[in-house]
């Protein structure tokens, strides 16, 4: 049987790895490293840097593979993503079979935590349909934690709930009902421009926890355009961007 360990690695800083994560990587026989093509390989290189820093000299084999792309011809978003998951699982299966056959320990380094807005667990479920697999998971520091730590703010207000959502949901549905704090992930850019900025503060981070981290905070109506422009410049410079932000309605501002 293949044991697949999904290792949360935080946001690209090797200091974010737990001792449990380092131990799991060193106990594996094979580590899968995805590449996304020219101009998008910073994340693969960061994974390799982490491996070089924490693996023992006689450590696991590292297998790099090219990630499949989502098929733009599939109009429905969920169907398109599910097809992409299936394609990715097949690529994993081929790599694992090439190096290990049908038994051994495989590790996959997951940004943040594998349980939070990440598809790796779903891909692992599809892998199980092609080979006998059991899945283990090592928790990691999330981008939410890195965001709040970087800005030195609390995630929630006293005794109050918060919601974590996506940029797509914010655009489609607006501000979630009955909460004053919203964390937005997986935003293609500027979903916060779709809401009324009155009485809203925002804390935005790009490349949170990495050397190139960018942070902007303030009243949404004052910094919205600055964030949009800064994001565009950073994406052009690096070829990719990962950002996250927290928005909070000030006390006395009406909730949706």
Automatic annotation (TrEMBL):
Which intervals hold domain Tetrapyrrole methylase? 3-222
Protein name (database record)? Tetrapyrrole methylase domain-containing protein
| Keyword terms of this UniProt record | Cobalamin biosynthesis, Methyltransferase, S-adenosyl-L-methionine, Transferase
User: Pathway of this protein?
Assistant: Cofactor biosynthesis; adenosylcobalamin biosynthesis
GO BP terms in the entry: cobalamin biosynthetic process; methylation
Q: Per its record, what are the GO molecular function terms?
A: precorrin-6A synthase (deacetylating) activity
Q: Which CDD domains match?
A: Precorrin-6A-synthase
The record's Pfam families line, in alphabetical order, gives: TP_methylase (PF00590)
Superkingdom to which the source organism belongs: Bacteria
């Amino acid at each position: 049987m293949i044991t697949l360990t999904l290792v949360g690695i935080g946001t690209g800083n090797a200091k974010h790895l737990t001792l449990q994560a380092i131990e799991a990587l060193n106990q594996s026989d094979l580590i899968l490293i995805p590449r996304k093509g020219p101009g998008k390989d910073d994340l693969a290189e960061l994974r390799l840097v982490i491996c070089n820093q924490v693996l023992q000299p006689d450590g696991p084999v590292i297998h790099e593979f090219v990630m499949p792309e989502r098929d733009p011809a599939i109009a429905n978003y969920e169907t398109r993503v599910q097809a992409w998951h299936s394609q990715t699982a097949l690529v994993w299966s081929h790599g694992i079979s090439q190096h290990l056959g049908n038994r051994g320990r495989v590790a996959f380094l997951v940004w943040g935590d594998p349980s939070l807005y990440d598809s790796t667990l779903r891909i692992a479920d599809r892998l199980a349909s092609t080979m006998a697999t059991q899945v283990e998971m090592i928790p990691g520091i999330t981008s939410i934690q890195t965001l709040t730590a970087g800005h030195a703010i609390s995630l929630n207000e006293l005794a109050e709930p918060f919601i974590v959502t996506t940029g797509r949901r914010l655009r489609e549905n607006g501000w979630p009902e009955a909460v004053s704090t919203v964390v937005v992930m997986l935003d293609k850019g500027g979903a916060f421009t779709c809401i009324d900025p009155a009485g809203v503060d925002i804390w935005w981070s790009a490349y949170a926890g990495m050397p190139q981290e960018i942070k902007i905070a303030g009243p949404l109506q004052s910094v919205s355009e600055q964030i949009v422009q800064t994001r565009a410049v950073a994406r052009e410079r690096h070829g990719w961007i990962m950002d996250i932000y927290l928005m909070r309605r000030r006390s006395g501002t009406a909730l949706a």
